[in-house]
Amino acid sequence: MGINYIYPEFEVIRDTTRCIACRVCERQCANEVHRYDEDLGMMTADDSKCVDCHRCVSLCPTRALHIEKSRHTFRENANWTGDKITEIYRQASTGGVLLSSMGNPQNIPVYWDKMLINASQVTNPPIDPLREPMETKTTLGAKPRTIQRDQDGKIIDNRSPRLTLNTPIMFSAMSYGSISYNAHASLARAARELGIYYNTGEGGLHKDFYEYGPNTIVQVASGRFGVHKEYLETAAAIEIKMGQGAKPGIGGHLPGAKIVGDVSATRMIPEGSDAISPAPHHDIYSIEDLRQLVFSLKEATEYKKPIIVKIAAVHNIAAIASGIARSGADMIAIDGFRGGTGAAPTRIRDNVGIPIELALASVDTRLREEGIRGDVSLLAAGSIRCASDVVKAIALGADACYIGTGALIALGCHVCRTCHTGKCNWGIATQRPDLVKRLNPDIGSQRLVNLVRAWDHEIKEMMGGMGINSIEALRGNRLMLRGIGLTQKELDILGIMHAGE
Amino acid sequence: MKKVYVNEEWCLGCHLCEYNCAFANSGLSDMAKLKGKTITPNIRVEEGDKICFAVNCRHCDDPICVKSCIAGALSKSPDGVVEINKDKCVGCFTCVLVCPFGCVRPDEQGVISKCELCTKNAVGEPNCVKGCPNHAIVYEER
């Protein structure tokens, strides 16, 4: 393998008239791109190591740096694109499966961007959220089928366990191990301040975060890492992870190198051992088996906690969700194929699963048709990027949305998609102590709080425009959406009309 | 009084504070004009094996540098800031020797230079605090 076929993807462009050689870029780059050359008396860069994470760009005090996509090119070919050729070079030299991080970056339709929101004019006046009450508070869980009254005619509280959110947004499952201690601390603190929930992912719950239990959703995944009685009892809800949008049908693998110190203790596995989550739960091969786990967890927590079942959006999603709704679960979380990950095989991430918009619409329709929509709440996940995505998801039938990548971006993530290297320069997807400390949870939690508050304001603005003053009145209200540039089949699945209709 | 403190838990050792300090006290209009200059900041990052933190003048209640100054150039202001009158400094550097924190240094002109909490430059508030990317350096009452 004498020849290196791969030319650097990015070029570090340094304005030498502005660079004062303070060496901040050199100290801050975990990929060791920058170097001070004593002989030349100036900074130099090794472009081949750059992942385009912008840490140096953001910290350069004189704004002397920026990163450009390499102009180096292959002969143009619509079929054999540069990416495809480079991937073959990479595999031919390593013989390995290609790994990627974050969500699917391929140019596959984003249906959020092909739906438009309604607004009131004349006959049904819009509402100004700054002057009139506006409700985004959301309750998640099974709705009672009947109202029961006692002998005096008073309503008996027959509601099942539930979650109450001040805003219909939660932080999605990201494990301690895949993200850092400080990233978890930021999410936990922000969830508490916002009156929403964050999710531990499958890596267990660090003992320091038990105090955030009332705002914590704990996950029980196929590897069962970190699951014990106190873990379940501390949480506000328990999520059974059947699948993940970024990698439907496969499990997880956190390399032994990352199973150090507290990560090992929290996962309850020896230091240095690989944390392998099997593709299936080895005790679940049917809806009946799932029902057993749902009720085992309910039994273990004395029927006080709602149970969420998280699945990846795949082809038969409506039928699968129908089965889950009958398994006794209180909520179904659907993770679309653009959902993020700390590491997944590239082919799986880019080719397996379906968009959340279509999955959500078909599940909501199916559950309504079967008269069981009230038995479960629907949580939409898999690249909810802004407040209008939340509004559209809720109008399609979601009860609330999970945001993962969006939350990480608020923490400083620049979506460079190299989480799997463990050298996150922003202190998020890493366990290296010198990198982890770059994320100060005082700053991180405040940025998350700001983000969700901003979205809440925007959601209220859009609801007000539609003349709706309660998020309940928006839920499943597909008349508030119109498609643009969609085929009749796509409109039928989304259950919306085309713009102009 | 409000002083500059460093939370070493969050100090990244990026040395940005040193450049922000040098720039604030340089009177230059653009930090890029520091190019080619050797800076003598009043805050310095101390680095060990696995620890790093920035150190600047502690503005001691009973400052030994003021006591030891033979020219009356160092004084404690009514606000508690240990100030240097460079016109009076004779460059004996006794203060440099006695400061237990190593926070008084000779400058390029042969007199001494020390942190005055950016009260005498155009920034008006400690520039090291303003520019710290991880809120490791804070300016607060303790």
What can you see in these coordinates?
The complex is a heterodimer of chains A (501) and B (142). With 501 residues, chain A is of the alpha/beta class. Chain A has 16 helices and 23 strands. In chain A, the strands form 8 sheets. Chain A has an 8-stranded parallel beta sheet with strand order 11-21-20-18-17-14-13-12. A 3-stranded mixed beta sheet of chain A has the order 6-22-23. In chain A, helix 5 (229-234) links the parallel strand 13 (216-220) and strand 14. Chain A is globular, with a radius of gyration of 24 Å. Chain A starts with 9 loop residues before the first strand and ends with a strand. In chain A, 48% of the residues are buried. With 142 residues, chain B is α+β, with helices and mostly antiparallel strands. Chain B folds into 2 domains: 1-56 and 119-142, Alpha-Beta Plaits, CATH 3.30.70; 58-114, Alpha-Beta Plaits, CATH 3.30.70. Chain B starts with a strand and ends with a strand. The model of chain B has no long low-confidence stretch (mean pLDDT 94). The A-B interface holds A 17-24, 27-28, 58-59, 61-62, 64, 433-434, 437-438, 440, 442-443 and B 9-10, 12-16, 18-20, 23, 30-32, 34-37, 50, 131, 133-136.
Write the layout of secondary structure elements.
The complex is a heterodimer of chains A (501) and B (142).
Chain A lengths: L9 E5 L9 H5 L5 E4 L4 E4 L9 H5 L5 E5 L12 H13 L4 E2 L14 E3 L20 E3 L7 E2 L5 E2 L6 E3 L3 E3 L9 H14 L3 E2 L16 E5 L8 H6 L2 E5 L10 E3 L6 H7 L7 E3 L9 H14 L6 E6 L4 H9 L5 E5 L8 E2 H6 L4 H14 L7 E5 L5 H10 L3 E4 L1 H6 L22 H4 L4 H25 L5 H4 L6 E3 L4 H7 L2 E2 L3
Parallel strand pairs in A: 11-21, 12-13, 13-14, 14-17, 17-18, 18-20, 20-21, 22-23
Antiparallel strand pairs in A: 1-4, 2-3, 5-19, 6-22, 7-10, 8-9, 15-16
Chain B lengths: L1 E5 L9 H11 L17 E4 L4 E4 L8 H5 L5 E3 L5 E3 L9 H5 L6 E2 L5 E2 L13 H5 L5 E5 L1
Antiparallel strand pairs in B: 1-8, 2-3, 4-5, 6-7
